[in-house]
Amino acid sequence: MKEKSHELRCTGCGARIAGTDATSNFRCAQCGELYEVVYPWSSDGANLPNAGALRWLWQERRSSTLPIDQSGVWRFRDLLPILDDPSHAVTLREGNTPLYELPRCGKIAGVDWLLAKHQGMNPTGSFKDTGMTAALSVAAERGFKVVACASTGNTSAAMAAYAARAGLTSIVFIPEGKIAWGKLSQSMDYGALTIQLKSDFDGCVRVLNDLVKRLPIYMLNSVNPYRLEGQKTPALEMVEQMDWQVPEHVIVPGGNLANSSALGKGFEEMKRLGLISRVPKISVIQAHGANPLYRAMQASGGEQLEPVVADTRATAIRIGNPASWKKAVRIIRATGGWVEEVSEQEIAQAKAEIGAEGIGCEPASAVTLAGLKKLTRDGRIGREERVVLLLTGHTLKDPEYTIDFHRGTLFSDQEASSLRKPPIVLEARTDAVLKALESSIQL
């Protein structure tokens, strides 16, 4: 496989262009749909590499001291030859994230075998790092000096970090008052110019789309197809960590909906190359207050999507007009997955249950466990199926949410939960502490 042999193919009309010919907003000039990256071996009749040799090569790279080999994205660079020179990759040693067992959550959800692929263990604390290393590396190699994104938090943190690493200027557009401050603080720390717009995420996207048409700014939102090339690599990591066995089901949070399509692309490419024998079902879970895909699937089977005014405390998925919804629908249909919605209370409870395993995640990640409960309850997922939850962000991404849950102030009508662990305020006397311990824990 040659290093620079790739094209962009429109997911609507199928038109193919060179990567350098894409418009600034990464929309097809003929039909307006998004692009995907394709390679010579993506087509029928192509000469395919040896699957066993690829597995051996990727494993060998794990013992290398080269930064590009220590990256869990660029370690698989044979399947994303998007750079003219791989040494141009901008990396923070992203990827190689853990695959945790969740026995207690599995028991709660009604499955015997539950795992979590924790993308919150990336350098900036979210799955966005895997896509950002890919897309920003392309931007740097092509000579762009300024990069920008609209963000609900995680994208801005990742972009700012990788731009700083590459010596590029980064601009972040965020909806005023609708972002977790822990995420915004990262963008500030990494030197990004942060602009808060008096709008929601979709309004920020509209402004950014106008700007990139007028200025030499490289857009790094998930409409950028190179983002998805990086974001497909957790699929490779997942089956590698499972000794090349494939789970029956992978469950993903649904925000802008690029992640589900990226993972689906990764699984489909592995199957085509003979690395795996089948593709898992991929299901998407949305918050009830930000559920345009769920509504679209209920109303028209995913043929049409009506934007919504998004409202959820799970800020990472507070998106009412997801750009990649058509890609997500295709993957869900192709794999036989589902789309489900969960309430704010269900998200909070699931987040606490994951935390009780000693893992922890941001609120948006917890929709996966909340959705799994619904899918097992009505028989769409069987007890014997192997399920992997994709946890997209670290628990410290939104500490205010966690504190409010345990204090009982997250919602006005928050129900009591045995998982709530509010701090106990006592006088500084040993007897007072002993009395509290006797009533709180079993010694």
From TrEMBL:
Gene Ontology biological-process annotations: threonine biosynthetic process
Cofactor: pyridoxal 5'-phosphate
Keyword Lyase: yes
UniProt xrefs under PANTHER family: CYSTATHIONINE BETA-SYNTHASE
Molecular function GO labels: threonine synthase activity
NCBIfam families xrefs: thrC (TIGR00260)
Annotated gene: thrC
SUPFAM superfamilies attached to this UniProt entry: Tryptophan synthase beta subunit-like PLP-dependent enzymes
Species the sequence originates in: Terriglobus albidus
Taxon lineage: Bacteria, Pseudomonadati, Acidobacteriota, Terriglobia, Terriglobales
Annotated CDD domains: Thr-synth_1
Family to which this protein belongs: Belongs to the threonine synthase family.
Name recorded for this polypeptide: Threonine synthase
Keywords for the protein's UniProt record, in alphabetical order: Lyase, Pyridoxal phosphate
Domain Rhodanese: 146-190
PROSITE patterns: RHODANESE_3 (PS50206)
The keyword Lyase belongs to this UniProt entry's keyword annotation: yes
Modification sites for N6-(pyridoxal phosphate)lysine: K128
One Pfam family this sequence matches: PALP
The protein's Enzyme Commission number: 4.2.3.1
InterPro entries in alphabetical order: Cys_Synth/Cystath_Beta-Synth (IPR050214), Rhodanese-like_dom (IPR001763), Thr_synthase-like (IPR004450), TrpB-like_PALP (IPR001926), TrpB-like_PALP_sf (IPR036052)
